[in-house]
Automatic annotation (TrEMBL):
The keyword Metal-binding applies. Signal peptide: none annotated. Keywords: Hydrolase, Metal-binding, Zinc. The keyword Zinc applies. Counteracts the endogenous Pycsar antiviral defense system. Phosphodiesterase that enables metal-dependent hydrolysis of host cyclic nucleotide Pycsar defense signals such as cCMP and cUMP. PANTHER family: 102 KBASES UNSTABLE REGION: FROM 1 TO 119443, QUORUM-QUENCHING LACTONASE YTNP-RELATED-RELATED. SUPFAM superfamilies: Metallo-hydrolase/oxidoreductase (SSF56281). Its cofactor is Zn(2+). It comes from the Bacteria. Residues 21-201 form the Metallo-beta-lactamase domain. This is Glyoxylase-like metal-dependent hydrolase (Beta-lactamase superfamily II). Belongs to the metallo-beta-lactamase superfamily.
Length: 261
C-alpha cells in the first residue's frame, strides 16, 4: 500500500476568514486508487497535475472518500468521472437536515446525488484491505476518518478535521466544532489507537510518548505574482537549528522545541 499526501493541509486564517486549505490524500492498494477528500475552491486545476506526477489519471480514481461535507474537503469531487463517492449516512442527514453550518454547501449535495455515484456508509466499513472507515465525530456529527493498518507503515489515521492541526492533537482543544466535548473525546480515542495522524489542516503528525511531532516531508509554497516579492512561505517548520532530529517516517528534519512552548 502507498499513501501520498497530494496536498498538504494548512491551518492558517486571515482576518477576513478561514483559508480552507485542507489535506488531500491519495492511496494506492495495488488494486484500488482512493482519494481522501478533494480540497477546496482553487485547488481544481492543480489536482490533475499532481496526480499526473504520479502517473494517475482523474478517471482512474475508483473511490473518493468524503470525510465530511465541508466545502474545503468536498467541492472538487465532481471532477472524478468514474469514482464512487463515499459519505457517512449520518453526515448526509446533517447536510440535508438544515444544519445551519455555514461551511456546508447544501446545493452541492444534490449535484453529487445526481451522478448516481454517491453512496452512504451506514456504519464503519472496510474500504479495501487494511483500510477501514471509522466514526470520528465532533467537528461534524457524521465525520469519518480512515484507519490504515498495514505492516509497511505505522498505524495511521487519515483524520481529516477530526484533528485539524498539531495543537488540537496535543491539547484536545478544538475551535469550530459541532460538539466540542464529543470532538475532544474523539481525539483521546485517536491517541489510544494510532501512532500517526494525517490531519485536515496540517502536516503528518507522529504521536510519541512525550508529545506530538510534525513531519516536514511535504511542503507547499505561497506564490505571489511577479513583481511582488515573496512575503511568506507555506512551511510551518523550523529547520537547520541545533538539536534538530529526524522525522521517523520521512527522515526530514524536525525540531521538537517548537512544539513544547
Ligand atoms: Zn471541516
Ligand atoms: Zn477543513
Amino acid at each position: 500500500m502507498e499513501i501520498k499526501v497530494l496536498f498538504q493541509g494548512f491551518p492558517g486564517k486571515l482576518q477576513r476568514g478561514f483559508l480552507g486549505w485542507s489535506s488531500m490524500i491519495y492511496i494506492s492498494t495495488g488494486k484500488q486508487k482512493i482519494l481522501v477528500d478533494t480540497g477546496s475552491f482553487g485547488d481544481a486545476p492543480e489536482i490533475p497535475k499532481r496526480l499526473a506526477q504520479i502517473n494517475v489519471k482523474m478517471e482512474e480514481i475508483d473511490t473518493v472518500f468524503l470525510s465530511h461535507f465541508h466545502y474545503d474537503h468536498i467541492i472538487n469531487a465532481h471532477l472524478f468521472p468514474k469514482a464512487t463517492y463515499l459519505l457517512s449516512r449520518i453526515e448526509a442527514e446533517y447536510v440535508t437536515g438544515g444544519s445551519g453550518d455555514w461551511a456546508v454547501p447544501e446545493y452541492y449535495f444534490s449535484h453529487l446525488e445526481k451522478t448516481g455515484r454517491l453512496k452512504f456508509m451506514e456504519s464503519e466499513m472496510l474500504i479495501a484491505e487494511g483500510i477501514r472507515s471509522i466514526y470520528t465525530p465532533g467537528h461534524t456529527p457524521g465525520l469519518m476518518s480512515l484507519l490504515i493498518e498495514d505492516e509497511s507503515m505505522p498505524t495511521t489515521l487519515i483524520a481529516s478535521d477530526a484533528v485539524k492541526n498539531i495543537v488540537e492533537l496535543q491539547t484536545g482543544n478544538v475551535p469550530m466544532a459541532w460538539d466540542t466535548k464529543v470532538s475532544k473525546q474523539t481525539i483521546e480515542n485517536i491517541k489510544d489507537r494510532v501512532t500517526r495522524v494525517i490531519p485536515g489542516h496540517d502536516r503528518i503528525l507522529h504521536i510519541e510518548k512525550d508529545g506530538v511531532i510534525a513531519c516536514h516531508s511535504v511542503k507547499e509554497r505561497i506564490q505571489l505574482p511577479a513583481g511582488i516579492s515573496e512575503v511568506t512561505g507555506f512551511d510551518l517548520g523550523i529547520s537547520s537549528t541545533t538539536g534538530a532530529e529526524e522525522c521517523p517516517c520521512c527522515k526530514s528534519v524536525i525540531d521538537r522545541r517548537q512544539l513544547h512552548e
